[in-house]
Amino acid sequence: MVTKEEVISKFKEAIINGNEEEAVKWAKESISIGLDAYEMITKYGGEAMEVISKMYEERKIFVPEVLLAANALTSAIEVLRPHIKVEKTKVPAKIVLGVVEGDIHDIGKNLVKIMLSSAGFEVIDLGRDVPLQKFVDVAKEVKADVIGMSALMSTTMPGMKKVIDMLKEAGIRDKVAVIVGGGPVTPEWAQSIGADARPKDASAAVGITKQLVEELRKRRGESW
Ligand code: B12
User: Fold this and answer.
1) N or C end of the chain, less CB within 10 A?
2) pTM for this model (two decimals)
3) What separation in Å is there between the alpha carbon of 145 and the centre of ligand 1?
4) Hey, which bits of the chain come out as E strands?
């Protein structure tokens, strides 16, 4: 009989080693012994990625190993995903979501998508390395309620500000709420670029989105 601690430790080890098969195996095991699926991804998967990040910074590993670890986590997420518990919202809303131009880190964004769509929101996923103008064009086209942008690098973060400026130029900034997230994105920075919120993680994004959409509906009526 394996303990919860052993399962968690094996799960993290599998991700760090970039062993997809083992990561999937321990993800399945975690469910069968009653561990929380969301926590497995964000807490323990996140901790494994932090170890990877440190090893990468110390030049103990290189991009191919980071990629293997990312793939192992992604496959584990697929197994854990149906077991994530999210409260369904009664607030219908459309969210345009993507990773900003120049950035291909999409695990966090995919997690945000899982949480928002599981909560019942309609998510239009633009993918990663998304040209900035596309956020604005698609938001207009689908009459989005919220734009969600992800950036994992300090070099790609400024793209978020550009999108907000483009929304202003297009005269639609007040029609859509903007949430931002990703490793280097702090609440202070989010505020400084004029975003509406920086939920700390994918789970927090659900409640904040609901709140922003309710405020938005009151403010704009149904004038999209
Ligand atoms: C995995 C990884 C990769 C993988 C990505 C695979 C993939 N499909 O995503 C690969 C190997 C491709 C990669 C490539 C590179 N990477 Co990389 N990578 C990472 C690593 C180790 C983990 C990221 C991750 O997936 N974390 C797990 C997820 C779950 O966490 P998360 O994304 O932060 O998401 C959470 C929150 O932030 C939030 N969130 C995220 N997005 C959003 C959006 C919204 C709207 C909301 C509300 C919330 C939210 O919710 C999530 C949790 O619930 C990070 C290290 C780190 N500490 O982040 C480096 C890191 C981001 N990479 C880095 C670098 C330098 C690179 C490369 C330039 C390396 C190179 N020389 O080629 C390239 C860049 C390629 C590019 N153009 O984007 C640096 C960036 C440094 C910087 N300047 O800021 C980091 C920090 C590593 C380091 N310590 O140096 N990388």
Assistant:
1) N
2) 0.96
3) 26
4) 94-99, 122-125, 146-150, 177-181
